[in-house]
Amino acid sequence: MSGIIKYFADILHGLKTLWAGMRITGKYFVSPGEIVTEQYPEIRHKKQIVSDRFKGEVIMPHDENNQHNCTGCGVCELNCPNGSIEIITKRIPDENGKMVRVIDKHIYHLSMCTFCGLCIKVCPTQALAWGQEFEHAVYDRTKLTKVLNKPGSSYKGLSSKKKEAKS
Amino acid sequence: MSEVIKNYIVRENEDYIVNMGPQHPSTHGVLRLELVLSGETVKQVVPHIGYIHRGIEKMCEYDTYKQIVHLTDRMDYLSAHINNEAVCLLVENALEIEVPERVKYIRVVLDELTRIASHQLWWSAYGMDLGALTAFFYGMRDREKILDIFEESFGSRLLHSFNTPGGLMHDVHPNFQKHAMEFVKYFRKKLPEYKQLLTDNVIFRNRTQGIGVMSRETAIAYGVTGPSGRGSGFSCDVRKIAPYGVYDQLEFEQILYEQGDSFARYMVRMKEMEQSLNIIEQAVDKITDGPFTAKVKPIIKLPEGEYYQRVETARGELGVYVVSDGKKFPYRVRFRSPNFSNLFVLNTIARGHLIADLVAISGSLDLVIPDIDR
Fold first, then answer.
1. CATH number at residue B80
2. CA angle, B170 then B173 then B176, to 5°
3. Structurally, how many domains does chain B consist of?
4. CATH number of the domain at A57-152, out of 3.30.70.3270, 3.40.50.2300, 3.20.20.140, 1.10.1420.10?
5. Residue A18: what pLDDT?
6. CA dihedral B35, B38, B44, B47 (to 10 degrees)
7. What confidence tens digit (pLDDT) does each residue in A121-162 have?
8. Which residues in A lie closer than 8 A to residue B170 (C-beta atoms)?
9. B170: closest chain A residue by CA
10. What is the predicted pLDDT for the residue at A158?
């Protein structure tokens, strides 16, 4: 007899716990104010979906005169743990005809980058920064190798030296 | 040792051998379990590892101490911040660098947030392993709140190489303390839902209670640490027995359960989340203004010798062992990862259970495969 009572008590207990769980899902089903899912491609242009500090990729900010802060010293290349950065420098004459070493190409392999942030932290002139672009999918992996300094750009410090020399 | 050997039986001809994995949803990574079956009963479990071996320990020998930090993210990716801290603490202790108070408390808050996020993901996935898909959505919903705090402060959600020897990479976001407290309040309200959805569910209880019983002796013999070991009554919380950082100044309990079954291991993690909330509440108030890093030389060279540092990750005790010959690269680095020890107890505790129970047992051990292979 006690076996039968236990059998039905177990069924009742099971139904009770199932009801407790179902009540929570039911509660969220009828309260649309608590919906947390978002439709991804649609919200992309409506609001900022990543924070300002988001580590999307390494970029080199340029000002309106197409000038950057990179001296081509190569500290970022030295500190990168997996060889994502290659620095190619060249020698050009400055105003006084003196040969100076400037950056030719700052090559950044996004496919190898682990986003540790050491290059940005060690840069003595703050030439590098994080970009917030996060949709990096491409069909060809060679497209993930980027040249960070824009064509025709120059080092900011060099022109200020030139201006000082002019004035 | 004899106990370990006698668990591996000689196979008979009528035994049925099945590979579970390397691509099995319940192993959460590439792990192959070779099962020796008799009918549906598991007679033996032989784990085959190495599918995701990347040679992190060898790579560390060619990296400076600052560069090693980002590699430790990739071991136990769910407690990335705590792994980073292990290497940083080792270097700081070796060079006797005095870390600012602000950094110590920020690290504690981040450690505990990481621990909660890791347990939330485990809770979601454990429910899913046992056929309760609803749990997955609720766990992920609350984990998203923590990931938002991480993203706001250090720009990445999972692998944030935020610690650096001497302090932090950069300062936390000004809203960090506010948002951490908001999360504590939010999650306190949501924890009862976890209880109603899964803990009290009669199907879940029947599938976990009394399944995969691990005695305290077995836990100690295999070196099972973390919540899995504490579910068997093995007092192994590094935060209590060898406090690092400021854990000795904070009040929290070490959760111990004596039963040693899958449900006990489950309950340890659920209670640990509450303890972590308490720690965050205490530590957030003590974050003072100040510098976010101590002064460290650009190239760190450890004095000749051997160093060891252990921390409590979300899965157990992580040990970092470094041999230095005085150069800027370490001579040898070795990680004592918690999941490696936790995995190999599977054969002992899963024997005699059904295959479906094996999923429940391996889920309750909370394995992260990249941490096993390194």
1. 1.10.645.10
2. 125
3. 1
4. 3.30.70.3270
5. 84
6. 0
7. 888 888 888 888 888 888 988 888 888 887 877 777 765 555
8. 121
9. A121
10. 66
Mean pLDDT (whole number) for A7-15: 88
Q: Shortest CB distance from A118 goes to which of B66, B138, B154?
A: B66
Which residues in chain A have their CB less than 8 angstroms from residue B88's CB? none
pLDDT band at A166 (very low <50, low <70, confident <90, very high): very low
B161 touches chain A (CB under 8 A): yes
Q: Token pair for residue B76?
A: 């136990």
pLDDT above 70: percentage of residues in chain A: 93
Tens digits of residue pLDDT in A35-54: 777 777 777 776 677 788 88
Beta carbons of B81 and B169 less than 8 angstroms apart: no
Q: Does the beta carbon of A121 lie under 8 angstroms from any beta carbon of chain B?
A: yes
> B71-83 burial by CB neighbour count: b if 16+ within 10 A, else e?
bbbbbbbbbbbbb
- Among candidate residues A91, A94, A93, A95, the one with its CA nearest the CA of residue A103: A91
pLDDT at residue number A167 = 44
Residue B131 at interface with chain A, using a CB cutoff of 8 Å: no
Mean pLDDT of chain A: 81
Q: Which residues of A touch B156 (CB under 8 A)?
A: 54-55, 115
Domain that holds residue B69: 2-373
Question: Which residues of chain B carry a pLDDT beneath 70?
Answer: 1-14, 24-27
Q: Select from A12, A47, A53, A128 the residue whose CB has the most chain B CBs within 10 Å, as the one to mutate to test that interface.
A: A53
Spatial distance between the Cα atoms of A106 and A86, rounded to a whole number of angstroms: 6
CB B81 within 8 A of CB B117: no
Q: Where are the domains of chain A?
A: 2-37, 57-152
